[in-house]
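FW: tagging you since you asked about this chain on Friday. Here's the raw sequence from the shared folder, copied in full. Didn't touch anything.
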Amino acid sequence: MVISKEEELVETLRVVIDPEIGMNIVELGLVRNIELNEEDDSAKITMILTTPFCPYGPQIIEQVRMVANNVMSGGVTVEIGTELWDPSMMEEGAGGDWGLF
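HL: got it, structure written out here
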């Protein structure tokens, strides 16, 4: 099975854990958009944080940039979106441990 560059990038981002919640940013639904530029093998990732003033925000953003650069040889830009996070953004089944779904 051949996976796309975007799928590879998403799977790689699963190693980035939100330290306060203990879940990865993909299952939390923090990755809101990925734009790939195939010409220079770069990406722009738009993500949000669980709270606007997340004390781990800078650390999480830097981890996203670092792990994504392992997949994208042309570099990665990480932007913070303006959406407010809520538990409904989580992957299906991810909130089970919290009794949310």
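FW: The mean pLDDT is 91.
HL: agreed, and The longest helix spans residues 57-69.
FW: great, closing this out.
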